[in-house]
Amino acid sequence: MYRSKIAGLGANVPENVMTNFDLEKIMDTSDEWIRERTGIQERRFVTQPCGAAELALPAVLAAIQEAKIDKADIDLIIVATITPEHLFPGTSSFLQALLEIPYAPTLDIRVQCSGFIYGLSIADQFIKTGMYENILLVGVEIQSVGLDLSTAGRDTAVLFGDGAGAVVVSRSDDDSVIASTHLFADGTHAKDLWIDAPVGYESPRITNEMLDQRRQYPSMNGRQVFKHAVTRFPEAVIAALDANGWTREGIKLVVPHQANMRITEAIAKRLDLPLEKVYSNIHRYGNTTAASIPLALYDARREGKFDKGDQLVLAAFGSGFTWSSAAVVW
Ligand code: COA
To answer: What pTM, to 2 d.p., does this model score?
Structure first.
Protein backbone atom coordinates (compact mmCIF):
# COMPACT_ATOMS: atom_id res chain seq x y z
CA MET A 1 0.00 0.00 0.00
CA TYR A 2 1.20 3.52 -0.83
CA ARG A 3 1.37 6.41 1.64
CA SER A 4 0.31 10.01 1.04
CA LYS A 5 1.71 13.37 2.14
CA ILE A 6 0.98 17.06 1.82
CA ALA A 7 3.47 18.06 -0.88
CA GLY A 8 2.43 21.67 -1.46
CA LEU A 9 0.44 24.35 0.37
CA GLY A 10 -0.95 27.71 -0.73
CA ALA A 11 -3.38 30.33 0.54
CA ASN A 12 -5.21 33.36 -0.76
CA VAL A 13 -7.49 35.92 0.86
CA PRO A 14 -9.20 39.01 -0.56
CA GLU A 15 -7.24 42.23 0.01
CA ASN A 16 -10.20 44.06 1.54
CA VAL A 17 -10.10 44.01 5.36
CA MET A 18 -13.40 44.30 7.25
CA THR A 19 -12.75 45.17 10.89
CA ASN A 20 -15.16 44.86 13.80
CA PHE A 21 -15.33 48.67 13.73
CA ASP A 22 -16.47 48.51 10.09
CA LEU A 23 -19.26 46.14 11.15
CA GLU A 24 -20.27 48.57 13.93
CA LYS A 25 -21.18 51.02 11.15
CA ILE A 26 -23.69 48.69 9.48
CA MET A 27 -25.27 46.80 12.41
CA ASP A 28 -25.81 47.07 16.14
CA THR A 29 -22.68 45.35 17.38
CA SER A 30 -19.38 46.30 18.99
CA ASP A 31 -15.73 45.46 18.64
CA GLU A 32 -15.73 44.58 22.34
CA TRP A 33 -18.65 42.09 22.03
CA ILE A 34 -17.08 40.34 19.05
CA ARG A 35 -13.53 40.22 20.42
CA GLU A 36 -14.54 39.02 23.88
CA ARG A 37 -16.75 36.19 22.66
CA THR A 38 -14.89 35.09 19.54
CA GLY A 39 -11.37 36.56 19.42
CA ILE A 40 -12.09 37.95 15.94
CA GLN A 41 -10.71 41.42 15.17
CA GLU A 42 -11.09 41.49 11.42
CA ARG A 43 -11.94 39.33 8.42
CA ARG A 44 -11.59 39.61 4.65
CA PHE A 45 -14.59 40.33 2.40
CA VAL A 46 -14.47 40.33 -1.41
CA THR A 47 -15.34 43.71 -2.87
CA GLN A 48 -16.34 42.74 -6.38
CA PRO A 49 -18.14 39.76 -7.87
CA CYS A 50 -15.73 36.84 -7.43
CA GLY A 51 -16.47 33.13 -7.52
CA ALA A 52 -15.00 30.60 -5.11
CA ALA A 53 -12.89 29.07 -7.91
CA GLU A 54 -11.43 32.47 -8.76
CA LEU A 55 -10.51 33.18 -5.14
CA ALA A 56 -8.94 29.73 -4.84
CA LEU A 57 -6.81 29.94 -8.00
CA PRO A 58 -3.73 31.79 -6.58
CA ALA A 59 -3.67 29.38 -3.60
CA VAL A 60 -3.88 26.43 -5.98
CA LEU A 61 -1.05 27.67 -8.21
CA ALA A 62 1.18 28.20 -5.16
CA ALA A 63 0.45 24.67 -3.87
CA ILE A 64 1.19 23.15 -7.30
CA GLN A 65 4.47 25.06 -7.52
CA GLU A 66 5.61 23.91 -4.09
CA ALA A 67 4.70 20.31 -4.91
CA LYS A 68 7.00 20.59 -7.94
CA ILE A 69 4.44 19.06 -10.26
CA ASP A 70 2.93 20.25 -13.48
CA LYS A 71 -0.77 21.11 -13.31
CA ALA A 72 -1.30 18.39 -15.93
CA ASP A 73 -0.10 15.87 -13.31
CA ILE A 74 -3.19 16.46 -11.13
CA ASP A 75 -5.25 13.28 -11.12
CA LEU A 76 -8.26 14.59 -9.17
CA ILE A 77 -9.58 17.95 -7.97
CA ILE A 78 -11.48 18.00 -4.67
CA VAL A 79 -13.10 21.23 -3.51
CA ALA A 80 -14.64 21.67 -0.06
CA THR A 81 -16.96 24.66 0.14
CA ILE A 82 -20.36 25.71 1.44
CA THR A 83 -20.34 28.81 -0.75
CA PRO A 84 -20.17 27.59 -4.36
CA GLU A 85 -20.82 29.87 -7.31
CA HIS A 86 -23.93 27.93 -8.30
CA LEU A 87 -26.15 25.11 -7.02
CA PHE A 88 -24.60 23.01 -9.77
CA PRO A 89 -22.11 22.23 -11.16
CA GLY A 90 -19.69 22.36 -8.27
CA THR A 91 -16.84 24.82 -7.76
CA SER A 92 -14.36 22.10 -8.77
CA SER A 93 -15.73 22.25 -12.34
CA PHE A 94 -15.15 26.00 -12.54
CA LEU A 95 -11.69 25.57 -11.02
CA GLN A 96 -10.77 22.87 -13.51
CA ALA A 97 -11.76 25.21 -16.35
CA LEU A 98 -9.66 28.05 -14.89
CA LEU A 99 -6.71 25.68 -14.52
CA GLU A 100 -7.18 24.47 -18.09
CA ILE A 101 -6.67 20.81 -17.25
CA PRO A 102 -9.47 19.08 -19.13
CA TYR A 103 -10.29 15.49 -18.15
CA ALA A 104 -9.06 15.77 -14.54
CA PRO A 105 -12.05 14.48 -12.52
CA THR A 106 -13.74 17.00 -10.23
CA LEU A 107 -15.42 16.41 -6.89
CA ASP A 108 -17.16 18.91 -4.63
CA ILE A 109 -17.78 17.91 -1.05
CA ARG A 110 -20.20 19.59 1.33
CA VAL A 111 -19.08 18.90 4.85
CA GLN A 112 -18.91 22.48 6.05
CA CYS A 113 -16.16 23.19 8.60
CA SER A 114 -14.94 19.58 8.37
CA GLY A 115 -14.65 19.80 4.59
CA PHE A 116 -10.89 20.12 4.44
CA ILE A 117 -10.20 17.11 6.68
CA TYR A 118 -12.87 14.97 5.00
CA GLY A 119 -11.22 15.94 1.69
CA LEU A 120 -7.80 15.03 3.05
CA SER A 121 -9.15 11.63 4.03
CA ILE A 122 -10.66 11.05 0.58
CA ALA A 123 -7.39 12.09 -1.07
CA ASP A 124 -5.43 9.80 1.26
CA GLN A 125 -7.58 6.78 0.33
CA PHE A 126 -7.14 7.35 -3.41
CA ILE A 127 -3.37 7.64 -3.00
CA LYS A 128 -3.12 4.62 -0.69
CA THR A 129 -4.83 2.34 -3.19
CA GLY A 130 -2.50 3.49 -5.95
CA MET A 131 -5.32 4.86 -8.09
CA TYR A 132 -3.97 8.43 -8.08
CA GLU A 133 -0.57 10.07 -7.42
CA ASN A 134 -1.36 13.79 -7.11
CA ILE A 135 -4.61 15.21 -5.81
CA LEU A 136 -5.48 18.88 -5.52
CA LEU A 137 -7.54 19.64 -2.41
CA VAL A 138 -9.04 23.08 -1.92
CA GLY A 139 -10.96 24.66 0.95
CA VAL A 140 -12.55 27.92 -0.13
CA GLU A 141 -15.35 30.19 1.04
CA ILE A 142 -16.89 33.43 -0.05
CA GLN A 143 -19.16 33.94 2.93
CA SER A 144 -19.52 37.71 2.75
CA VAL A 145 -22.10 37.80 -0.05
CA GLY A 146 -24.36 35.34 1.79
CA LEU A 147 -24.43 36.89 5.26
CA ASP A 148 -27.22 38.93 6.80
CA LEU A 149 -25.13 42.03 7.48
CA SER A 150 -27.93 43.72 9.40
CA THR A 151 -28.63 43.67 13.14
CA ALA A 152 -31.06 40.79 12.56
CA GLY A 153 -28.18 38.59 11.40
CA ARG A 154 -25.47 39.80 13.75
CA ASP A 155 -25.13 36.59 15.77
CA THR A 156 -23.70 34.75 12.75
CA ALA A 157 -22.62 37.57 10.39
CA VAL A 158 -19.79 38.73 12.65
CA LEU A 159 -18.23 35.27 12.72
CA PHE A 160 -17.52 34.51 9.08
CA GLY A 161 -15.01 35.65 6.46
CA ASP A 162 -13.73 34.87 2.97
CA GLY A 163 -10.57 32.95 2.12
CA ALA A 164 -9.00 30.01 0.35
CA GLY A 165 -6.35 27.40 1.05
CA ALA A 166 -5.08 24.59 -1.14
CA VAL A 167 -2.83 21.57 -0.82
CA VAL A 168 -1.45 19.03 -3.22
CA VAL A 169 -1.64 15.56 -1.70
CA SER A 170 0.92 13.30 -3.35
CA ARG A 171 2.30 9.79 -3.05
CA SER A 172 4.98 9.96 -0.33
CA ASP A 173 8.52 8.76 -0.94
CA ASP A 174 9.99 10.15 2.30
CA ASP A 175 9.07 10.47 6.01
CA SER A 176 6.29 13.02 5.40
CA VAL A 177 2.93 11.29 5.65
CA ILE A 178 -0.76 11.62 6.38
CA ALA A 179 -0.58 9.13 9.25
CA SER A 180 -4.33 8.85 9.93
CA THR A 181 -7.70 10.49 9.43
CA HIS A 182 -10.83 10.12 11.56
CA LEU A 183 -14.27 11.31 10.40
CA PHE A 184 -17.42 11.64 12.51
CA ALA A 185 -20.94 13.08 12.17
CA ASP A 186 -24.23 13.44 14.03
CA GLY A 187 -27.05 14.49 11.70
CA THR A 188 -29.53 14.93 14.54
CA HIS A 189 -27.99 18.40 14.92
CA ALA A 190 -28.27 19.28 11.22
CA LYS A 191 -30.49 22.27 11.92
CA ASP A 192 -28.36 23.73 14.71
CA LEU A 193 -26.17 25.48 12.13
CA TRP A 194 -27.63 25.69 8.65
CA ILE A 195 -29.11 27.65 5.78
CA ASP A 196 -32.75 26.73 5.22
CA ALA A 197 -33.43 28.19 1.77
CA PRO A 198 -33.57 27.77 -1.18
CA VAL A 199 -35.18 24.49 -0.18
CA GLY A 200 -35.77 21.33 -2.14
CA TYR A 201 -39.24 20.62 -0.71
CA GLU A 202 -41.11 23.53 -2.19
CA SER A 203 -41.83 24.74 -5.69
CA PRO A 204 -40.46 27.20 -6.57
CA ARG A 205 -37.41 26.65 -4.40
CA ILE A 206 -37.20 30.29 -3.39
CA THR A 207 -40.07 32.71 -2.90
CA ASN A 208 -40.36 36.33 -1.84
CA GLU A 209 -41.93 35.08 1.37
CA MET A 210 -38.83 33.01 2.18
CA LEU A 211 -36.62 36.01 1.48
CA ASP A 212 -38.79 38.18 3.74
CA GLN A 213 -38.36 35.54 6.46
CA ARG A 214 -34.56 35.74 5.91
CA ARG A 215 -34.39 31.97 5.41
CA GLN A 216 -31.58 32.39 2.85
CA TYR A 217 -29.16 33.39 5.60
CA PRO A 218 -27.20 31.15 7.99
CA SER A 219 -28.88 30.46 11.29
CA MET A 220 -27.21 29.00 14.34
CA ASN A 221 -27.97 27.67 17.77
CA GLY A 222 -24.74 29.13 19.12
CA ARG A 223 -24.92 27.51 22.54
CA GLN A 224 -25.45 24.00 21.12
CA VAL A 225 -22.58 24.51 18.68
CA PHE A 226 -20.31 25.69 21.46
CA LYS A 227 -21.27 22.88 23.84
CA HIS A 228 -20.64 20.13 21.28
CA ALA A 229 -17.53 21.73 19.80
CA VAL A 230 -15.64 21.80 23.10
CA THR A 231 -16.28 18.05 23.54
CA ARG A 232 -15.93 16.82 19.96
CA PHE A 233 -12.72 18.69 19.08
CA PRO A 234 -10.73 17.07 21.92
CA GLU A 235 -12.25 13.64 21.12
CA ALA A 236 -11.09 13.95 17.52
CA VAL A 237 -7.58 15.01 18.57
CA ILE A 238 -7.33 12.09 21.01
CA ALA A 239 -8.46 9.69 18.26
CA ALA A 240 -5.53 10.93 16.14
CA LEU A 241 -3.01 10.60 18.96
CA ASP A 242 -4.20 7.13 20.00
CA ALA A 243 -4.24 5.75 16.46
CA ASN A 244 -0.57 6.61 16.01
CA GLY A 245 0.79 6.15 19.51
CA TRP A 246 1.59 9.88 19.56
CA THR A 247 1.78 11.89 22.79
CA ARG A 248 0.69 15.40 23.73
CA GLU A 249 4.33 16.20 24.46
CA GLY A 250 5.55 14.80 21.14
CA ILE A 251 3.26 16.71 18.83
CA LYS A 252 4.45 20.08 17.64
CA LEU A 253 1.10 21.76 16.97
CA VAL A 254 -2.64 21.21 16.93
CA VAL A 255 -4.20 23.13 14.04
CA PRO A 256 -7.93 23.35 14.67
CA HIS A 257 -10.62 24.73 12.42
CA GLN A 258 -10.85 28.38 13.41
CA ALA A 259 -14.39 28.52 14.80
CA ASN A 260 -13.99 30.77 17.80
CA MET A 261 -11.07 31.66 20.09
CA ARG A 262 -13.07 30.58 23.14
CA ILE A 263 -13.47 27.13 21.59
CA THR A 264 -9.73 27.00 20.84
CA GLU A 265 -8.96 27.91 24.47
CA ALA A 266 -11.34 25.22 25.69
CA ILE A 267 -9.65 22.63 23.44
CA ALA A 268 -6.23 23.52 24.90
CA LYS A 269 -7.58 23.29 28.44
CA ARG A 270 -9.39 19.98 27.96
CA LEU A 271 -6.37 18.43 26.26
CA ASP A 272 -4.05 19.85 28.90
CA LEU A 273 -1.97 21.54 26.20
CA PRO A 274 -0.35 24.98 26.49
CA LEU A 275 -2.28 27.48 24.35
CA GLU A 276 0.85 28.05 22.20
CA LYS A 277 0.47 24.47 20.97
CA VAL A 278 -3.04 25.09 19.61
CA TYR A 279 -2.72 27.41 16.64
CA SER A 280 -4.99 30.38 16.10
CA ASN A 281 -5.25 33.07 13.43
CA ILE A 282 -8.96 33.73 13.92
CA HIS A 283 -8.25 37.35 14.91
CA ARG A 284 -7.17 37.98 11.29
CA TYR A 285 -9.71 36.08 9.21
CA GLY A 286 -12.69 35.08 11.37
CA ASN A 287 -14.25 31.71 10.60
CA THR A 288 -13.58 30.77 6.97
CA THR A 289 -15.30 27.37 7.24
CA ALA A 290 -13.65 24.87 4.82
CA ALA A 291 -10.74 27.25 4.16
CA SER A 292 -9.76 27.77 7.76
CA ILE A 293 -7.44 24.78 8.29
CA PRO A 294 -5.28 25.25 5.17
CA LEU A 295 -5.19 29.01 5.87
CA ALA A 296 -4.11 28.30 9.45
CA LEU A 297 -1.49 25.79 8.27
CA TYR A 298 -0.15 28.35 5.84
CA ASP A 299 0.13 31.09 8.47
CA ALA A 300 1.53 28.74 11.13
CA ARG A 301 4.29 27.58 8.79
CA ARG A 302 5.08 31.16 7.78
CA GLU A 303 5.36 32.05 11.48
CA GLY A 304 7.82 29.17 11.98
CA LYS A 305 5.47 27.18 14.24
CA PHE A 306 6.41 23.90 12.59
CA ASP A 307 8.94 22.44 10.21
CA LYS A 308 9.63 19.34 8.15
CA GLY A 309 9.34 16.14 10.19
CA ASP A 310 7.09 17.67 12.88
CA GLN A 311 3.95 15.87 14.09
CA LEU A 312 0.77 17.92 13.57
CA VAL A 313 -2.82 17.15 14.46
CA LEU A 314 -5.51 18.90 12.39
CA ALA A 315 -9.03 18.91 13.84
CA ALA A 316 -12.41 20.29 12.84
CA PHE A 317 -15.94 20.64 14.14
CA GLY A 318 -18.91 22.31 12.52
CA SER A 319 -22.28 22.22 10.86
CA GLY A 320 -23.81 18.80 10.34
CA PHE A 321 -22.66 18.32 13.04
CA THR A 322 -19.47 16.90 11.59
CA TRP A 323 -16.10 16.60 13.24
CA SER A 324 -12.81 15.07 12.22
CA SER A 325 -9.05 14.90 12.68
CA ALA A 326 -5.91 14.14 10.72
CA ALA A 327 -2.47 13.20 12.01
CA VAL A 328 0.19 14.56 9.70
CA VAL A 329 3.96 14.29 9.69
CA TRP A 330 4.96 17.43 7.79
N1 COA B 1 -23.12 41.95 18.68
C2 COA B 1 -23.71 42.33 19.80
N3 COA B 1 -24.61 41.58 20.45
C4 COA B 1 -24.91 40.39 19.93
C5 COA B 1 -24.31 39.92 18.75
C6 COA B 1 -23.39 40.77 18.11
N7 COA B 1 -22.76 40.42 16.97
N8 COA B 1 -24.80 38.71 18.47
C9 COA B 1 -25.67 38.40 19.43
N10 COA B 1 -25.75 39.42 20.32
C11 COA B 1 -26.56 39.51 21.52
C12 COA B 1 -27.80 38.63 21.43
O13 COA B 1 -28.84 39.32 20.80
C14 COA B 1 -28.08 38.37 22.89
O15 COA B 1 -28.74 39.50 23.41
P16 COA B 1 -29.87 39.34 24.54
O17 COA B 1 -29.19 38.69 25.70
O18 COA B 1 -30.30 40.74 24.78
O19 COA B 1 -30.92 38.47 23.92
C20 COA B 1 -26.71 38.32 23.48
O21 COA B 1 -25.83 39.00 22.60
C22 COA B 1 -26.20 36.90 23.62
O23 COA B 1 -25.03 37.03 24.32
P24 COA B 1 -24.39 35.82 25.06
O25 COA B 1 -25.42 35.07 25.83
O26 COA B 1 -23.21 36.33 25.80
O27 COA B 1 -23.94 34.95 23.86
P28 COA B 1 -23.11 33.67 23.96
O29 COA B 1 -22.25 33.69 25.16
O30 COA B 1 -24.02 32.51 23.73
O31 COA B 1 -22.14 33.82 22.74
C32 COA B 1 -21.65 33.02 20.59
C33 COA B 1 -22.64 33.78 21.45
C34 COA B 1 -22.20 32.93 19.17
C35 COA B 1 -20.34 33.79 20.54
C36 COA B 1 -21.43 31.62 21.20
O37 COA B 1 -22.65 30.98 21.37
C38 COA B 1 -20.52 30.77 20.37
O39 COA B 1 -19.35 31.00 20.30
N40 COA B 1 -21.06 29.71 19.72
C41 COA B 1 -20.31 28.93 18.79
C42 COA B 1 -20.28 29.67 17.49
C43 COA B 1 -19.41 29.05 16.47
O44 COA B 1 -18.26 28.82 16.70
N45 COA B 1 -19.95 28.81 15.30
C46 COA B 1 -19.24 28.31 14.20
C47 COA B 1 -18.94 26.85 14.38
S48 COA B 1 -18.16 26.20 13.04
So the answer is: 0.96
